[in-house]
Amino acid sequence: MKISTKGRYALRMLLDLAEHQNDGFIALKDIAARQDISKKYLEQIVSILNKSDMLQTNRGFQGGYKLARTPDKYTVGEILRLTEGGLEPVACLAHGTLNCTRGCGCATLPVWQGLDRVINEYLDGITLQDILDQQRQMYSNNYVI
């Protein structure tokens, strides 16, 4: 499993919206500038996120995007599964069914199932709010006299 730029950028975009949630609707160009991501690429990501009701959209003057839920209701696992199509470490576990003719007698299957479980439990245990809190904690402890 390798997380693509689409997944990483979607996470950064949603974190940016979470960080600026009190600013109303945020223009895509502002997110692109702050995150140093192409606006064109963010438009592709927004298309995916809009289909899943993760975002609220406002068109026209003062238009933009904001989170449809509070940051504590978005998990990293949910975001990555949506943008990556799945997080399975091996192809035979894709789509929740065993897609392998050797499945019944495969000695390594429990290894891959265990890894899949650990990945999903870990990523589903981290919310956007957790990341924001961790970032704030890191910066609050980083002072110089």
UniProtKB/TrEMBL annotation:
Any one GO MF annotation of this record: DNA-binding transcription factor activity
Source taxon at top rank: Bacteria
Matching PROSITE patterns: HTH_RRF2_2
GO cellular component entries: cytosol
Pfam families named in the record: Rrf2
This protein's UniProt keywords: DNA-binding
The protein's name in its UniProt record: Rrf2 family transcriptional regulator
